[in-house]
Amino acid sequence: MITVGVLFGGRTGEHDVSLCSAASVVSALDASRYAVVAIGIDRAGRWYVQDAPGVVPDPEFGRKMRLERTGTWLAANHPDDNRLTLREIGSGQEVRLDVVFPVMHGTYGEDGTLQGLLELAMVPYVGADVIGSAIGMDKDVSKRLLAQAGIPVTPGVTVSRRDWERRKREMVDEAIGRLGLPLFVKPSCAGSSVGVRKAKIEAELCDAVDFAMQFDTKVLVERSVPCREIECAVLGNDEPAASVLGEIVPNHEFYSYEAKYLDPDGARLSIPADVPSALAEEIRSCACRAFTVLCCAGLARVDFFLDRETGAYYLNEINTLPGFTSISMYPKLWEASGLPYAALLDRLIDLAFERHAVRAALKTEC
């Protein structure tokens, strides 16, 4: 039996979303194939192995993983057998993991930092590696790489904290002059619409940038495109495959954090999206190409804007560890493509072992 360590929580604005995603993953893993070890990371970054995976009701998210803070746990690697060991220093209790499934979104979970630790531990893990995770998380860097590869991205400018503090007036004039109004403002390295605001007038733009700067040192200011929000799920390593397309139809002004997670009527998911077949195939192909350009592996959800007026599409962003609740777009897109939730988890774990075997065979010295 394979021992799967499900990591959840973390030092991130998406901590609660992670607990919700983890509850769905733990509940769906095949008990005949996997022994599941739940590992909660609290908001201070401390790791806690749970006595047993516990899923509890939640008034906002429906259900989530319980995170009990007991013991003092340390992580150690065992390169002889490619397993990650967690040890409780008081009792000496040890838990060994064959593969890690990080169900963690946002900072310190999806940005390459956790992946670096798992690489040092030489243990297989689900999802993109250090570089793919870091690039995917940084919307500024990923947009530059995508544009260089000829993939259309939403027009925008990047504002650094240093420049914003020194020449705010100039940067406001530049953004409005190049992009017009209204504008969307978002932190470069955040997810789940954390820190995102829409600016309809100049005064709102300054407030929106100041707000976003609380979450990152780099902020994207992007043109507001009158669009449909189209999403595609990608699965694989060197030969990624794309799901059918889905559409987010928000009932809020835009697909905010509240619309995604807190308001049960915040948005409607339309699967498959009503997109002409030739265009749908072009977007699916673009999603797979972007997955490769940005060095992704395992899984990613690729989000597009489809301009209602011109019919053009833009790649908005890529999510290397997307939401994984039973109603999240990523698993629902694969379910609509013929791959049920539990089978999707099996495939992701297989891909983790596949990639690890390739990397383990590489030489580290001449």
Give the tags.
D-amino Acid Aminotransferase, Chain A, domain 1, 11 helices, 29% strand, 5-stranded antiparallel sheet, globular, Dna Ligase, domain 1, 18 strands, Rossmann fold, 4-stranded mixed sheet
Account of the 3D structure:
This protein is of the alpha+beta class. It folds into 3 domains: 2-125, 3-Layer(aba) Sandwich (Rossmann fold), CATH 3.40.50; 136-152 and 226-359, 2-Layer Sandwich (D-amino Acid Aminotransferase, Chain A, domain 1), CATH 3.30.470; 156-223, Dna Ligase, domain 1 (2-Layer Sandwich), CATH 3.30.1490.20. It starts with a strand and ends in a 6-residue tail after the last helix. It is 33% helix and 29% strand.
Q: What structural category characterises the helix and strand content?
A: alpha+beta
Largest sheet report: 5 strands, antiparallel
Number of helices: 11
Q: What is the CATH first-level class name of the largest domain? A: Alpha Beta
Work out the radius of gyration. Answer: 21 Å
Shape: globular
What is the CATH homologous superfamily assignment of the largest domain? Answer: ATP-grasp fold, B domain
Q: What is the level-2 CATH architecture name of the largest domain?
A: 2-Layer Sandwich
Mean pLDDT: 91
- Strand residues, percent: 25-35%
Helix content: 25-40%
